[in-house]
Amino acid sequence: MNAAFGTTPLPEPDPGPGQDPVTGQGPQSLSPYRLFKREEWAQLRADTPLTLKAEDIERLQSINDPISVEEVVAIYLPLSRLLSLYVAATQGLFKATQRFLMAERETKVPYIIGLAGSVAVGKSTTARILAALLARWPNTPKVDLVTTDGFLLPNAELASHGAMDRKGFPESYDTAALLQFLHDVKAGHKRVTAPLYSHLVYDRVPGEERVVESPDILIVEGLNVLQPARLPRDGTAIPFVSDFFDFSIYLDGHEDDLHRWYVTRFMKLRQTAFRDPRSYFAKYAEVPEDEALRIADHLWTSINLPNLRENILPTRQRASLILAKGASHRIESVALRRL
């Protein structure tokens, strides 16, 4: 799985206006991140080959989340190269530790990548593009992708607690089950299952499972995956999802853009998925357009925006890498946590 694409050193970024690229406050010299403009980051591709065709990229993108071949080349090929180096280093450290412990049998430990960000920022497209690139490394590593949607509590349970309008907030997940899943994956279990979620019916699919079998790399995508553990008063640490990650990515966007992308996606879905009579949102397919716009705006303002401000955005600085999108979905800058 070691895809040695070269070892070109990372250049020092332009210090810019003297502000932290993440918080926008204080001197950038004190930031834990190194900021790269799009053009600077693109140069780090080195000789990493593009292994996806234009039709592959089109197939992998989500609705209302345009992505071009140029975007993959400029942003995701350098990221793929960086991850190849990180994975190889992690594997080397693990093998050295096994030798130190004189372990008789080496257990396969997957490299886990967490991907966080707001609703409508394009996490699904990013996760699928990244998974496809990683799976095409030399030696063809096995790459799997899981979203935390499957660990949302069933709608019936949320409704019984009057919490359907809190769906997607941290308390709406079966955190214990998600932690057990990640523990089993990281422990090297050969077959681990996760609940299957349907965006069509907006709920778990009873009796259906998502099977993960001994991946080399696992991408875990979700809204709140970077939230830190909470320490109880007795001082006993409770692990959280991010504790299992080897590398983490936050996909960032301005609030106004996220709002616009969410509403635009909602209106497009009215013409597609919402027209399926099985859809949870089928009731919105036939309402007048102006009413649909008001509904989408209300859903964003009352649910998704508070979740972003209270739970998702505060975790941004915990990411290993921040991909910042501009108004057109184009990633304009990259912030890499200093080593």
UniProtKB/TrEMBL annotation:
InterPro entries referenced in this protein's UniProt entry, alphabetically: P-loop_NTPase, PanK, PRK/URK
Top-level lineage group: Bacteria
E.C. number(s) listed in UniProt: 2.7.1.33
A biological-process GO annotation: coenzyme A biosynthetic process
One Gene Ontology molecular-function label: pantothenate kinase activity
Catalytic activity: (R)-pantothenate + ATP = (R)-4'-phosphopantothenate + ADP + H(+)
Swiss-Prot/TrEMBL keywords: ATP-binding, Coenzyme A biosynthesis, Cytoplasm, Kinase, Nucleotide-binding, Transferase
Every Phosphoribulokinase/uridine kinase domain range: 112-268
Pfam family, one: PRK
Stretches the record annotates as Disordered: 1-29
A GO cellular-component term linked to this record: cytoplasm
Pathway: Cofactor biosynthesis; coenzyme A biosynthesis; CoA from (R)-pantothenate: step 1/5
Residues involved in ATP binding: 117-124
Subcellular location: Cytoplasm
Enzyme type, top EC level: transferase
Family as reported in the entry's similarity comment: Belongs to the prokaryotic pantothenate kinase family.
Protein name stated in the entry: Pantothenate kinase
Species in which this protein is naturally found: Methylobacterium oxalidis
